[in-house]
Amino acid sequence: MTAASKLPAHVAAQANKASPNLVKEIFYGIGLGIFGGSFWKIHHLNERRKTEEFYARLEAGEITVNNCKGLTSIHQRCGSSCALGGVSSMPH
Fold first, then answer.
1. Contact between 53 and 67 (Cβ < 8 Å)
2. Is the whole model's pTM more than 0.90, yes or no?
3. How confident is the model over 11-35, as pLDDT tens digits?
4. Among 42, 51, 70, 76, which residue's beta carbon has the most beta carbons within 10 A?
C-alpha cells in the first residue's frame, strides 16, 4: 500500500494537488495590473480634459464663476437654462 492510500480521501486529494505555478501567477498579476491601471489612467485623463475645458471656457469668457452667499455658481452665456443647481444662463 502506498502512503496516499492510507490517508483519508480529503487529505489524499490535497496531497495530490499541483502546487501553484509561480510564472503563471506572475503573468496573471501583471495582466490584471495593466488592465486596472488602464482604466485608472483613462479616468484621470477624462478628469484632466474636463478641468482644462472648464478653464479654457472661463478664460474665453463663455462662463463666469460667482460666489454669492458662500455658494459658488457658474453662469453660462448661452441663453439656455440648465437643470443643475447653481448653474443659470446670463443674457448676452
1. no
2. no
3. 666 666 777 799 999 999 999 999 9
4. 76
Q: What is the pLDDT of residues 34-85, one digit of tens each?
A: 999 999 999 999 999 999 999 999 999 898 888 766 655 666 655 544 444 4
What is the C-alpha to C-alpha distance for residues 7 and 67, in angstroms, rounded to an integer?
Answer: 77
What is the rounded (10 degree) CA torsion for 54, 55, 61, 63?
Answer: 30
- What are 78's three cell numbers? 448661452
Distance between CA atoms of residues 84 and 80, nearest Å = 12
CA–CA distances in Å: residue 25 to residues 17, 22, 32, 53, 58:
16, 5, 11, 42, 49
Residue with cell 452667499: 69
Question: What residue ranges do the domains of the chain occupy?
Answer: 22-60, 62-92
Among residues 55, 53, 56, 61, which one has the least CA distance to residue 77? 61
Phi and psi based region of residue 71 (left: phi greater than 0; alpha: psi -120 to 50; beta: remaining): beta
Which amino acid would we find at residue 50?
K
